[in-house]
Design brief:
mainly alpha; 38% helix; Arc Repressor Mutant, subunit A; two-stranded parallel sheet
Length: 128
Amino acid sequence: MNSDDLYRDISRYLKGKKVDFLKYEPDLSNLTEFEQDVLNETRKIPYGTTITYSELADRIGRSGGARSVGQALSKNPYPIVIPCHRVVARSGIGGYSGGVELKKRLLNLEAKGITVRSPAVNFNMLQR
């Protein structure tokens, strides 16, 4: 990953700009195959969209593996670039290695000015 471009893109993202981080190829070689599968599928979640841990497990062919998916997401070495904040619990926000408040802020940042197609979480709950 070109660190100058990445720095600029993260800065733009944090200013509320939509950035496509798929152009970066993060090194996940130190993770298990399952963890890599989880994180690579997470990269595909569009800006402003959320899915549940269960949905992510289904997408990688691991139905019933929501808890394992959550554990894999906690090992994400590139938060924001791999948008694990877009994966939420069926009944709420779920966890986040950077803290739940940061997860809420990132989701709010993405929710401003966009239409969420099929959210797994009600963005109004993020105001709590």
